């Protein structure tokens, strides 16, 4: 049976029938007392972190690719693809949609390889796995049929509703709270041509559905409708946000850490990271406090990401999450968007990645030369563009002074 697009006309339809990191358990290194003037600095930690996000993201080298206009014939996922994938389903949504005009579909997770083809805006993608640099997906065509498999960049997609099982109501009908007609109660009335997605059934002549607003921007209800009052439809050619509140990320097991616990956990993790990178542990801990608001930010809670590390060209060791952010456009105007961020298995992994970035990028080479002096190091990374906040270094130094973080560098 031919399915209708969800932007069809009534006339057309009538023609158809129907964390708790281990470090947190270590002996205490700090006893947090009254913060005094430092509170003013930490209170703006999340806003400062957002500014630092942009600076970090700008320094992350994204894969440069050559576009290929025509996609290759659809091919199944090979065993090589499966071996290459680092499975991180717990941090990944089940479905994505392309949110840029054209998104390359790559053959492998490796950066820099040639694209198999181009995915158009709003293409639905079923997530297979997360790799080191990209997400492994299977694209679905405009008819809702599975097609090409490959790899996409995380910053070109957003979590979405599934790309299959779309329905519409063929007539005004009722949304019920159960399939059993003898016990079900009315949830709401549905107009003709209400867009829906099948979730289960049929059971007792009814199907369980999720009902969307006419522009697909929100879910207006879930329940059961008479199967006879529905008909199949093509996937919508618009953005359909994920109906879930989050992108599939689980909350960090360290989410209840208080300041003393956070300092002890961060101190242990920073010491491990500095042993291999040389980045002063005192600065790393101060940055984590400032940018994650003592581990209370949404990004720290959802993804163990304490430094606003974006997933541009590289994912975290536990995949990627998408969260609302504030960005500036070319004219300097602030706007709201969704951005992809690296997800980590632990606070320690987040700190290790942060320190690798500082020690590995040439722009921070002068800071690394001053690694033996934490105050100078903080001033230098700020001067090198880590944050657009002119008081960033002063805030870090205030935290290091107040909590005597320098003991971590001894």
Number of helices: 11
Shape: elongated
* CATH-derived topology of the largest domain: Lysozyme
**Rounded mean pLDDT score:** 79
- Major pleated sheet: 5 strands, antiparallel
N-to-C span: 72 Å
Q: Total strand count, please?
A: 16
| Low-pLDDT stretches | 7-27, 31-89, 247-256
Determine the oligomeric state from the structure.
single chain
How would you portray this structure in words?
The structure is a single chain. This protein is of the alpha+beta class and 410 residues long. Helix content is 26%, strand content 23%. Helix 3 crosses helix 6. The chain is elongated. The model is unreliable at 7-27, 31-89 and 247-256 (pLDDT under 50).
Features:
23% strand; 3 domains; alpha+beta; single chain; five-stranded antiparallel sheet; 11 helices; Lysozyme; 410 residues; elongated; SH3 type barrels; 26% helix
């Amino acid at each position: 049976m031919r399915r209708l697009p969800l932007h069809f006309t009534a006339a057309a339809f009538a023609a158809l029938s129907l964390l708790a990191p281990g470090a947190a358990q270590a002996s205490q290194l700090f006893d947090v007392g009254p913060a005094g003037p430092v509170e003013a600095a930490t209170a703006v930690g999340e806003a400062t972190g957002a500014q630092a996000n942009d600076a970090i993201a700008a320094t992350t080298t994204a894969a440069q690719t050559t576009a290929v206009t025509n996609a290759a014939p659809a091919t199944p996922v090979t065993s090589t693809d499966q071996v290459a994938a680092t499975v991180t389903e717990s941090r990944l949504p089940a479905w994505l949609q392309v949110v840029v005009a054209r998104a390359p579909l790559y053959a492998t997770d490796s950066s820099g390889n040639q694209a198999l083809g181009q995915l158009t805006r709003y293409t639905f993608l079923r997530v297979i796995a997360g790799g080191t640099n990209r997400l492994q997906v299977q694209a679905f065509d405009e008819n809702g049929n599975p097609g090409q498999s490959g790899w996409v960049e995380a910053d070109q997609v957003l979590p979405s509703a599934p790309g299959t099982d779309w329905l519409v109501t063929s007539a005004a009908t009722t949304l019920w709270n159960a399939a059993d007609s003898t016990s079900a109660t009315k949830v709401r009335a549905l107009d003709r041509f209400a867009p829906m997605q099948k979730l289960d059934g049929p059971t007792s002549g009814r199907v369980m559905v999720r009902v969307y607003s006419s522009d697909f921007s929100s879910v207006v209800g879930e329940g059961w409708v008479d199967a006879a009052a529905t008909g199949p439809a093509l996937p919508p050619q618009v953005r359909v946000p994920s109906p879930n509140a989050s992108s599939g990320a689980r909350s960090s097991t360290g989410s209840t850490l208080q300041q003393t616990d956070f300092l002890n956990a961060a101190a242990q993790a920073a010491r491990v990271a500095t042993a291999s990178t040389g980045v002063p542990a005192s600065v790393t801990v101060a940055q984590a406090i400032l940018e994650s608001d003592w581990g209370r930010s949404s990004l720290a809670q959802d993804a163990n990401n304490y430094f606003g590390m974006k997933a541009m060209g590289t994912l975290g060791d536990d995949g990627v999450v998408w969260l609302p952010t504030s960005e500036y456009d070319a004219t300097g105007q602030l706007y709201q968007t969704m951005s992809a961020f690296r997800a980590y298995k632990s606070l320690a992994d987040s700190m290790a990645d942060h320190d690798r970035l500082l020690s590995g990028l040439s722009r921070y080479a002068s800071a690394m030369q001053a690694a033996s002096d934490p105050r100078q190091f903080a001033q230098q990374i700020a001067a090198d563009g880590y944050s657009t906040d002119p008081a960033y270094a002063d805030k870090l130094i205030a935290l290091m002074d107040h909590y005597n973080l320098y003991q971590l560098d001894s």
